[in-house]
Design a protein that fits this description.
3 domains; alpha/beta; binds magnesium ion; binds guanosine-5'-diphosphate; Rossmann fold
Length: about 700
């Protein structure tokens, strides 16, 4: 006779192969629902093996069992509340060290457990020799090797499950946290021993309270004598923090990692010849303690110089093409409102943005090469020490790097961060990384105001400023808004490989389509809107009678001699008209606020409209300058800016700094709202970044003016 049905919970890291093994075990006999009270998916299946019935639960994938995410709390609550008869911990054998970190925490929950060493094929390919016996001896629990994707080892696993479930015994496991912490744990256990209706293992509860686990504190608070206990719990915590001289949570987490490291080294060293692969050798240089950062900066410097110099050539062609198109359309339309709308508004606005397509493609080419080759992961590793110094996880650097492309995927990429504080801080600082939409603004201003030899350095400098500001703000937010610890860095280093041409081309193609789509929709709409705002109201009250002045000049000098004077009057009139337009009035109204940064009302209009999308700054300036430019000698926008007396290199620099730092665009604000589930955070993001931009641009402009630039 075999026992009644046993429940088996599958736990493990995300992507360790849990669901694959779950499917191997249960076949089609499964159903999917939600965990009570939360929308985390719950899969349950049934299996009879050698006369033993079992119900298998696929727990959410987690890296740890601290209360950092919903998934982690769900996973441990199922284990504590539902008391499955045993846990099968699925481990990715090719990333064993990281996976063992969870295994140790599961063992601390004091439930019978089996280790399913999955992905042994991948481990073997990577040259990792696995010694199941040594791991089995170490923890004194069964260890089974599997290849889930080929359904190998499923029966051995089930045999181990049946054997363990028949024994009904658990050999206690306890990790030694060192004399000082252990003494405090014992005190804590004495304190808690009297609690009635304790559903947690005593030692585990004590450790969690030492770690100041919010979820557990809440649970204790509602227990009969719980509320009186908490002050005593805190007293023990405080005393041992003082004795230890460091934060308890960090000390406990560190000790766990240390232990996992020991187990891992034992386990691997017992057999494996640690061979150094080519990847390892490259890594030794690229992630070198001292050289790593300069190498990273050097690669970035080359990238931005390449984007700028190579991008100029096709950009010239596109500009010619757009100009030809505009001229052709103009020649076929009669002079008037419609022609102005189509040529100055639509073609001028959209064309000014399209000509930056090559720069953007080159930037994405660079990012794709760095990503696909595996270098990005190394860059994150190199940055980890800096990130950690400001209280962020090294893993945060990956979303930040994605921010060079666009902040939207960067913010979505923060989902990989387990810790809420890490995630929120990364979401808030991601927009400070200079996204590709800002590149047209820099390129335009640099081409107009800086020499070609300086160009690459200026772009590089702006990007570095973005990184530095992101790091500084991260430190501030971490301290003020989301205090807490950062877990040590564990990340897979993908092997280096040559990116395939196909994937790179596909990526470029997608980017082009996206950019052109944006130009054809959002930027076209914004251009039309800006054209109306700069051309209306149609009738304005001029400060003087231009027609009378022109007639007077003609009468006095004759048509021929008066020509330059008439042109001058036309220019003045056009300039006055646009400054009296809706856009002009709005710009003048906000001008006092941006005057200290060196900006005039035109830049003000551009900056406000560019909250829609940063490229709109370029198209808006294009429309404003071409509307005001009556002589129709068809300056390029770049020449028009260079000829404008408000602009000089210092103003251009101040404007680049402001563009880099001020409010994220609407799409990004919307994503922040979605990812944080609150309007508070996009509002905060808007406010802090615009303030920061103002202050930094002020420093640049006023400082530069004082220094005589
Ligand atoms: P989960 O996130 O833990 O549920 O992981 P999944 O079961 O979804 O597996 C993640 C990926 O790993 C899938 O693409 C599986 O096909 C693959 N996979 C699972 N087990 C193995 C294995 O033993 N070897 C290899 N090479 N791949 C596996
Ligand atoms: Mg899964």
């Amino acid at each position: 006779m075999s026992a009644a049905c046993v429940t088996v919970a599958l736990a493990g890291n995300p992507n360790s192969g849990k669901t694959t093994i779950f499917n191997n075990i249960t076949g089609a006999r499964q159903h999917v629902g939600n965990y009570p009270g939360v929308t985390v998916e719950r899969r349950e299946g049934f299996r009879r093996f050698q006369g033993q019935d079992m119900v298998v639960i696929d727990l959410p994938g987690t890296y740890s069992l601290t209360a950092n995410s919903m998934d982690e709390v769900v996973a441990r609550n199922v284990i504590i509340d539902e008391k499955p008869d045993l846990i099968v911990n699925v481990l990715d054998a090719s990333n064993l060290e990281r996976n063992l970190y969870l295994a140790v925490q599961l063992l601390e929950l004091e439930r019978p457990m089996v280790l399913a060493l999955n992905m042994t094929d991948v481990a073997e390919q990577a040259g990792i020799k696995l010694d199941e016996k040594s791991l089995q001896r170490r923890f004194d629990i069964p260890v089974v090797g599997l290849i889930g994707s080929r359904n190998q080892g499923t029966d051995s696993l089930l045999q181990a499950v049946v054997a363990v479930s028949e024994k009904h015994e658990f050999k206690p496991f306890s990790l030694d946290y060192g004399a000082k912490i252990e003494a405090a744990i014992r005190q804590m256990m004495d304190l808690l021993a009297g609690l009635d209706g304790l559903k947690y293992p005593l030692r585990w509860l004590a450790i969690k309270l030492m770690e100041n686990d919010a979820d557990i504190r809440r649970t204790v608070a509602v227990m009969p004598q719980g509320s009186q206990l908490l002050p005593m719990v805190d007293a023990i915590r405080n005393k041992s923090t003082v004795m230890l001289g460091e934060d308890l949570e960090i000390a406990i987490a560190e000790r766990r990692y240390e232990y996992v490291g020991e187990v891992y080294r034992d386990f691997v060293d017992s057999r494996a010849q640690v061979t150094e692969t080519i990847s390892d050798r490259i890594d030794r240089v690229l992630t070198h303690r001292v050289l790593g950062l300069p190498i990273f900066l050097g690669i970035m410097w080359i990238l931005f110089n390449m984007v700028f110099t190579v991008g100029e050539i096709p950009k010239g062609w596109i500009e010619e093409g757009v100009k030809w198109f505009g001229d052709t359309v103009a020649a076929n339309l009669t002079e008037g409102e419609l022609r102005s709308l189509v040529v100055d508004g639509m073609i001028g606005g959209v064309g000014s943005v399209i000509s930056f397509l090559p720069d953007i493609l080159l930037l994405f080419l660079g990012i794709a090469l760095l990503e696909d080759s595996g270098y990005m992961a190394r860059a994150a590793f190199v940055m980890d020490r800096i990130m950690r110094a400001v209280g962020l996880h090294g893993k945060s650097f990956i979303p930040l790097l994605l921010g060079f492309g666009c902040s939207v995927p960067a913010i979505m990429g923060t989902r990989t961060l387990e810790n809420r504080g890490d995630r929120m801080v990364t979401i808030l600082v991601s927009p400070l990384m200079s996204c590709s939409a800002r590149l047209p603004v820099y390129t335009l201003l640099i081409a107009a105001f800086f020499t070609e030899s300086m160009a690459g350095n200026v772009v590089f400098g702006i990007y570095i400023l973005g990184i530095v500001m992101a790091i500084v703000m991260a430190m501030v937010f971490r301290k003020l808004l989301f205090p807490g610890i950062t877990e040590p860095f564990i990340m897979e280093m993908p092997a280096y490989h040559l990116p395939t041409l196909r994937s790179i081309m596909l990526h470029m193609w997608e980017r082009s389509v996206l950019y052109l789509k944006k130009a054809g929709t959002l930027i076209l709409t914004a251009s039309i809107l800006i054209w109306f705002l700069t051309n209306y109201p149609a009738e304005v009250q001029y400060s003087k009678d231009y027609d009378a002045a022109k007639t007077a000049v003609r009468a006095q000098y004759g048509e021929e001699t008066a020509k330059p004077m008439l042109e001058q009057l036309d220019k003045e009139q056009a300039a006055e008209k646009i400054s009296l337009s809706y856009a002009g009035r709005f710009g003048k109204a906000i001008e006092p606020a941006i005057k200290p940064l060196g900006f005039d009302w035109k830049i003000g209009v551009g900056l406000v409209s560019a909250v829609a999308a940063k490229e709109v700054l370029v198209s808006t300036l294009a429309t404003i300058y071409s509307t005001g430019d009556v002589a129709d000698d068809s300056h390029s926008l770049q020449e028009a800016l260079a000829a404008d007396s408000t602009f000089r290199p210092l103003v251009a620099l101040s404007l680049m700094v402001f563009t880099l730092l001020y409010s994220p665009c609407l799409a990004v604000l919307a994503v922040i709202r979605r990812e944080t589930n609150s309007w508070k955070w996009p509002a905060f993001s808007f406010a802090y970044s615009t303030t920061l931009a103002w202050v930094m641009a002020f420093i640049v402009y006023q400082g530069g003016t004082l220094l005589g630039f």
